[in-house]
């Protein structure tokens, strides 16, 4: 899709002044700038964000060489690896982040205005229908960040960044995830609703299903993807995280990754304890989604295919372990998302 940058000449004076300020600041002290997007889909990839960049054209103050997205990082709960509902977008300069923010907002407004919401809505614009220099049909077809009915929340993080954000920028992700030994090129997070299965049982189900379907889930020579269990580190000094100062907003912004992981882990333990008061011990053991698995794939296509097939499907297969526990419960249901 090609999106024209036309229309930026009509920027309000305030936006024009901000552009000049950022251009001046970047010339004196260039720095990586971070935008955060909230309430987005949990399975977005970098290409979904890059698709909004005008390809092959020049946008004032921003060329692809200077303003391309450096990295997109999904926010995570560091105890469970669950998607936290937001993404960090890293840019090489303040100006490129500002231009992208304005351009994405402009595209979203166009998409919201021209996306049908009911039978009474106007028909979608045909291919080639131009609005403010953009192909409205192409924009609607390609915009996948959030539903048109929601509000776009895309804002810039102010400097100085918190220690954890500095770490994310430096390592292009959470070090505990991206720097761990044995990391695969493409990965997914797997948790099970219902009875909890061992890694060997999950591997057996995936191997048997792939063999029957003549599909290599891994995207490589092996049928089953690489499977490893996620175990969060929980070694922060309790005196540091339980002090009165640790509950303030300023301290929260200054947490390190290890401290944030500990807090996420503590909340997970507290929720498990609360749930145990309402359930018997055997039911608790069967149904609490305590196990978090990381699945490794060779290609993005194999990762997407795996998610499309297995997400919200029973983790069982004919000829493999059914996943039923001693209580005769139903097989567990897989929840899979990109990591």
UniProtKB/TrEMBL annotation:
Record field: compositional bias (Basic and acidic residues): 255-269
Chain intervals for the UniProt region annotation (Disordered): 254-281
Domain of life: Eukaryota
Segments of skewed composition (Polar residues): 270-281
Protein name stated in the entry: Uncharacterized protein
Species name: Hortaea werneckii
């Amino acid at each position: 899709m090609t999106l024209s940058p036309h229309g930026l000449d009509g920027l309000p004076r305030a936006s024009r002044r901000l552009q000049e300020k950022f251009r001046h600041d970047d010339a004196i002290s260039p720095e990586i700038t971070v935008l955060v997007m909230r309430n987005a889909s949990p399975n977005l990839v970098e290409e979904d964000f890059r698709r909004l960049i005008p390809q092959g054209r020049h946008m004032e103050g921003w060329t692809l060489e200077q303003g391309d997205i450096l990295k997109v990082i999904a926010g995570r709960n560091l105890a469970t690896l669950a998607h936290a509902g937001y993404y960090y977008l890293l840019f090489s300069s303040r100006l490129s982040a500002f231009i992208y923010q304005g351009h994405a907002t402009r595209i979203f407004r166009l998409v919201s205005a021209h996306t049908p919401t009911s039978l009474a809505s106007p028909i979608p614009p045909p291919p080639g229908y131009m609005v403010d220099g953009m192909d409205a049909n192409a924009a609607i077809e390609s915009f996948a960040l959030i539903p048109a009915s929601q509000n776009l929340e895309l804002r810039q993080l102010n400097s100085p960044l918190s220690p954890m954000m500095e770490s994310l920028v430096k390592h292009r992700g959470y070090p505990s995830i991206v720097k761990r030994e044995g990391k695969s090129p493409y990965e997914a997070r797997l948790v099970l609703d219902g009875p909890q299965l061992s890694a060997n049982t999950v591997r057996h189900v995936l191997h048997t299903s792939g063999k029957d379907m003549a599909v290599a889930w891994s995207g490589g020579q092996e049928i089953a993807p690489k499977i490893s269990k996620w175990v969060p580190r929980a070694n922060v000094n309790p005196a540091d995280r339980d002090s009165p100062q640790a509950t303030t907003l300023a301290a929260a912004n200054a947490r390190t990754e290890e401290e944030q992981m500990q807090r996420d882990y503590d909340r997970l333990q507290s929720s498990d304890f609360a749930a145990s008061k309402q359930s018997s011990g055997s039911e608790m053991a069967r149904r609490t989604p305590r196990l978090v698995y990381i699945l490794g794939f060779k290609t993005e296509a194999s990762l997407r295919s795996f998610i499309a097939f297995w997400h919200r499907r029973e983790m069982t297969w004919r000829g493999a372990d059914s996943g039923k526990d001693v209580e005769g419960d139903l097989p567990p249901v897989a929840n899979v998302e990109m990591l």
